[in-house]
Amino acid sequence: MANMNLYSRGDKFFVRINMVLVGLFTLATLYPFIYIAAVSLSSGMAARSGVVVLTPVEATFAAYQQILVDPDFWNSYLNTFIYTIGGTIMSLLLVIPAAYALSRPQLIGRRFWNLMVAFTMWFNAGMIPFWLNMRDLGLLDSYFGIIIGFAVNAFNIILLRNFFESIPRSFEEAARMDGANEFQVLWKVFIPLSKPAIATITLFCVVARWNGFFWAMILLQDEGKIPLQVYLRKTIAELSDDHEFSSTLLSSLYSAETVNAAIIVCSIIPVLLFYPFIQKYFNKGILLGGVKE
Amino acid sequence: MANLSDKSRWLLRHFRREWQIYLMLAPAVIWFLTFLYTPMYGLQVAFKDYSIFKGVAGSPWIGFEHFQTLFDNDDFIRSLKNTAILSAYNLLFAFPAPIILALMFNEILNQWYKKGAQTIVYLPHFISTVILAGIVLTAFSPSAGIVNTVLGWFGVDPIYFMSKPEWFRPIFIGSGIWQEAGFSSIVFLAAIAGVNPSLYESAVVDGASRWQMMWKITIPSILPTILIMLIIRIGNLLEVSFELVLLLYQPATYVTADVVNTFIYRQGIQSGQYDLAAAAGLFNAVVAFILVMTANALSKRFSRTSLW
Questions:
Q1: Could you tell me the domains of chain B?
Q2: Total domain count, chain A
Q3: Is A239 within a domain?
Q4: CB nearest A214 (choices: B145, B243, B264)
Q5: In this predicted complex, what is the ipTM?
Q6: Looking at CA atoms only, how far is residue A62 from chain B in angstroms?
Q7: What share of chain A is helix, strand, coil (3-state, %, to 5)?
Q8: What span, in angstroms and rounded, lies between the C-alpha atoms of A236 and A248?
Q9: Does A124 contact B288 at a Cβ distance shorter than 8 Å?
Q10: A79-115 tens-digit pLDDT
Q11: What torsion do the CA atoms of A268, A273, A279, A282 make, to the nearest 10 degrees?
Q12: Could you count the other beta carbons within 10 Å of the beta carbon of residue B97?
């Protein structure tokens, strides 16, 4: 299939047009990132007058200097790390043992427990009862509330349970002979065999935590506890409705646009660093594991 | 009686031997009860005159009054309509995009080119909604944005995109495609990879062109996958990315942008009308539940494999 010489003239034309179209779509995907990076490195005046297209105009680090001296920025960055790491560990601690238990045939009421988990994917009480419940539990404005409140996801449990179920019984027999208990079988047999599946749900958790903003925004009033996304959201709100703020800074080196772009760049960088690791897994097609039962 | 005590003795032995798996399951069960099933119990506020001081259980019942209020409320009706329209646009434009992209990727022979393009188009999926909104607001800004800069080259006056109701839907759907089309194509690429190669070999012998093979072999072969994804999409029809709406809309664009969940957010979280907002949420959840169940029944029928 890969030998172009076998292709007719019409096919060659088709293949080349296709290559160009894919190239254009790829550039269109890439361009906003380049544009934002260029804005973040331009002067406030240049950004405001709309002359930034591809490369920085009147290049300056002023916007970055502006945010890097803001203690709120660093604080929210640190909070994001706390929520991401804490939340992911909490998720794994709850999800892995539960998925293992649900995969055991001897579990009494297995159908019931599975239904209890799956039902939450079909029916959700919604924003208000969830919020009222968090308030009644005293989990507003709390690190722990954010970490525990979103720790379990039915989809992740089912994905991992399916993976555990696909592991042949013969793998655990040797361990059982040695008198291993359930915890030891899980730890020494199932977890090592399920590294790809566990990596997948870890990835889901990390990405969801890093990017999550809505619940952090409504559950956290204390500015000291907000994550990066909520911090970013505030600067975006200023960008969309406060034009006077920006125009007074017209003469200066930075503007609402450049500061906003600089924060976007700062919050994308860790994702880019993490991205090769992410790719390693979804190239194997494991992310699709949940689609088929 | 002897039978019963036999059973209880068996249970006792079972738990004594297998207590560890119940211990493993317990934290997650407690979590589900605390964080997802308690709110379901709390849904009763939709039928109550909720007061913070009386709490969920103590507030008096008022029946369907909130639902009546909702359906007399133009803003709620508008949010239902907008949700339906955005969903329909999603189905029409955002659903086919990854299929087309996967077919195009499949026709690329240069592996290096293909891998490079895929690496780039998958990336936006991992970007947060807030960043997406930040990019959109910057790019469409009237004075500073690149879109108006380019329009200016053609002598078009700056357009205030974000405050024009007629622009909200195209911008919303377009940014959704930018973010998800690439990543969603993975499913279809996997389906294409599973097509029997001998089908192509015999088509080549018959002198079929690439274009014909795409229409006669590839597309029919991945049709089951397309159908399953379509059914999943229908099941999630009400799940318009309301976070993105929340970040992009403004009072001037509510007329086309306000969806059910943003309505609930404003009524409930911002204005404190928890009972009314919970009623709107319950209505939403019931419709979503019916859609999901219908979708699942459909998928059982077409593919003989349940989705869950």
A1: 2-58 (no CATH), 66-303 (1.10.3720.10)
A2: 2
A3: yes
A4: B243
A5: 0.89
A6: 17
A7: 75, 0, 25
A8: 18
A9: yes
A10: 999 999 999 999 999 999 999 999 999 999 999 999 9
A11: -60
A12: 19
